[in-house]
């Protein structure tokens, strides 16, 4: 409540006022000191502040509801407060100046309307100007956003040049199926990780590079601004682009193609890394499967052979299924046999060439085996 306390100079202003006028003037004075503007409605003044100031000026807090913010008395009170604090009313020239300031300093970096309004009020306070009314403030904001948009479009078109703007405009020209297909492809995200997705993104990147957009087209622009224009363009169809003015159409297409070119490049890197990981994982699974099959051993082979030999000696006339499998097990025998067969194949010596009889004339034998 310290900000709502009346100090020495404040008491001089309210000394000759009584009743509702005394309370209303005191609250207007402190509200203007805090906000840099006058309230539009009485409800903007916090009830706790009304009660606190009412106690200071010895007037019932309920009397504040009788105070009017329009009329001769209210205008006179506003004038007294402005003069006491060194402020002046805003003019049409001030509104134009503020709109230009917003268009250059605020709108390119701040897109939220409420924050633009706050910036306007802060600037008015810094310039010792009473802000215009709510309707006039909205007009100033609209004018500032329009100026900022025109400046952004003009700068973009200037950097593109005539050839660049012509290529972009051709994308949304009527009966241009190739341009329509490219715009539709640019709006699609890459599919599942795979070679087809990688090749599709490479083709998409090559097509957008053919537009010849400058490398640093939006480097000095706010990321928020570029993102807002991209979000606006990504939702539009070719007919929607054609419905806009030419400068806005070119800027929307430039932002869309430029941002998607950078995003596709990043997506290609991610796709390539993911594809390599996928290939490695598949190769690892295949190798593990082969190693598992090769490393699968039958333990206790000597014991198995002993059991087989014992069963064969004890029951020489029995059938194998009744004599041997109950002792060792059919699956164990099959596994051991398969592994033994692989081992014999891998260790079998290479075939040597046949003997050559005529070599006996010099060596006395036809080959090493003789």
Task: Label this structure with key terms.
single chain; 370 residues; mainly alpha; two-stranded parallel ribbon; 17 helices; elongated
Q: Assign an overall shape.
A: elongated
**Low-pLDDT segments:** none
Largest beta-sheet characterization: 2 strands, parallel
Structural class: mainly alpha
Whole-angstrom Rg: 44 Å
Q: Would you tell me the overall average pLDDT?
A: 82
- The separation of the N and C termini measures 119 Å
Q: How many strands in all? A: 2
Order of helices and strands: HHHHEHHEHHHHHHHHHHH
Number of H/I helices = 17
Please, could you describe this protein's structure?
With 370 residues, the chain is mainly alpha-helical. It has helices at 8-14, 19-35, 47-57, 72-85, 92-106, 113-126, 134-171, 177-187, 195-209, 223-234, 238-243, 246-295, 301-314, 320-323, 325-328, 330-347, 360-363, and strands at 88-89, 129-130. Helix 5 (92-106) crosses helix 7 (134-171) and helix 9 (195-209) packs antiparallel against helix 12 (246-295). The model has no long low-confidence stretch (mean pLDDT 82).
């Amino acid at each position: 409540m310290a900000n709502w306390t009346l100090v020495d100079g404040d008491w001089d202003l309210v000394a000759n006022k009584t009743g509702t006028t005394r309370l209303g003037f005191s609250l207007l004075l402190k509200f203007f000191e805090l906000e840099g503007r006058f309230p539009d409605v009485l409800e903007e003044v916090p009830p706790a502040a009304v009660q606190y100031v009412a106690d200071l000026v010895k007037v019932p807090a309920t009397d504040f509801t009788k105070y009017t913010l329009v009329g001769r008395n209210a205008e006179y009170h506003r004038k007294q407060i402005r003069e006491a604090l060194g402020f002046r009313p805003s003019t049409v020239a001030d509104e134009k100046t503020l709109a230009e300031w917003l268009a250059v300093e605020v709108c390119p970096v701040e897109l939220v309307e409420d924050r633009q309004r706050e910036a306007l009020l802060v600037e008015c306070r810094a310039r010792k100007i009473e802000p215009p009314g709510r309707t006039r403030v909205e007009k100033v904001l609209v004018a500032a956003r329009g100026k900022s948009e025109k400046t952004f479009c003009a700068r973009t078109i200037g950097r593109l040049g005539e050839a660049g703007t012509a290529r972009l405009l051709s994308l949304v020209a009527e009966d241009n199926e190739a341009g329509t297909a490219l715009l539709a492809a640019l709006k699609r995200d890459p599919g599942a990780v795979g070679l087809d997705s990688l090749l599709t993104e490479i083709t998409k990147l090559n097509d957008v590079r053919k537009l010849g957009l400058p490398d640093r087209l939006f480097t000095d622009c706010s990321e928020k601004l570029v993102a807002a224009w991209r979000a606006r363009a990504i939702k539009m169809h070719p007919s929607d682009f054609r419905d806009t003015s030419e400068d806005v159409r070119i800027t929307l297409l430039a932002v869309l193609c430029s941002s998607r070119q950078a995003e596709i490049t990043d997506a290609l890197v991610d796709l390539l890394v993911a594809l390599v990981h996928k290939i490695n994982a598949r190769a690892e699974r295949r190798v593990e499967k082969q190693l598992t099959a090769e490393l699968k051993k039958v333990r206790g082979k000597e014991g198995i052979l002993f059991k087989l030999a014992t069963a064969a000696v004890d029951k020489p006339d029995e059938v194998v299924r009744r004599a041997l499998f109950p002792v060792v097990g059919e699956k164990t025998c099959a596994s051991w046999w398969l592994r033994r067969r692989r081992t014999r194949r891998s260790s079998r010596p290479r075939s040597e060439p046949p003997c050559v009889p005529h070599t006996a004339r010099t060596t006395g034998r036809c080959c090493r085996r003789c």
